[in-house]
Amino acid sequence: MLRVKAICLARCVHLAASWGKLADKYLSKRTKKSRTSLLNYRTSRNNNSKIMERKELPGILVSEIGGPFGVLESHVEFLKMHFNLITMKEFQKSKEELREKIKSVFVFEGRPLVDRELLESLPDLRVIGNSGVGVNHLDLKLISSFGVKITNTPHAVSDSTADIGMALMLASARRLVEGCDIAMSPQTKHFCVDWLGVEVTRATLGIIGMGNIGYKVAKRAKAFDMNILYHNRNRRKEEEQVVGATYCKTIEELLQRSDFVMLVVNLTSETHKLIGKKELGLMKPTAILINICRGAVVDQDALAEALQNGIIKAAALDVTDPEPLPRDHQLLQLKNVIITPHIGTATVQALRMMTEEAVENILAVLNDRPIPSEVYPN
Prior knowledge:
single chain; 378 residues; five-stranded parallel sheet; 14 helices; alpha/beta
């Protein structure tokens, strides 16, 4: 009897074990299937989230990507982190589909053109983010009338523009371009000992416009032990104490006293042709004019005449009006003028910082935060 019970118990245990293995096998298949389904669901959800996230990025209109006038390709990935990039070509092809998605316009090198037609075609536009300080290519009153904010990037450009100002001053003072031509000319047999420039050190520099860039120029000039004069709409006592500058109440006073005159003002109706025949006539015949702001601040015909007639010694211009000058323009025929192709901000670092500052401004507007660099219509 005991033997029968033992046999029965053993069979029960064996049967239970068999059912347990079968159950484990079955559950294992179900678990694996569930895990696979869960993984697929999570992957699908993540992909959908990424798609939704991409769709939810605010649209930003740019002129184009790459090429001579487009947004730099090296900046595209950074812009795509914050925006859905839409080029003008894409916008023109699918205007009805894209017009309500565009919340901002990124203006790089004056492009795209922001006119009434564009503003009327973008009902949800909130901000124009300009890359650079100068906004004379934008109709501020028109843009503002559409309830659209305007921003610029004054902090990103100050060092690079101040650097080009100093470079032009040194190059013109030491006649570097002329010297380079002489040194490289196949006709050159010897170097003349009476071929002379003038020293920047301890000379008098007059800065017209003591904003961020003008102040950076003054800091650099201080390292050359220059006597620094400046004229500005508002006196900047704190800055002048740091660099040891002297405030001139009038431009006339500054022009009469300066060996070098550097223009660092915004182009407005008040500064258009700020330096003309009268102003050039006030300068020393040994003085050099340097323009690193906007070409239209100078009357270029009057400047050419002054350079030809020895009213002033030389000029160094990073900006002209227009850009480039017509190939037959009289300024291009003169040896005592240096002209560079508006390269004040043309450095890897400056352009990157300009894009970053523009993005910061745009996102501030879109997220209803304080705007770091807003431009207001006059």
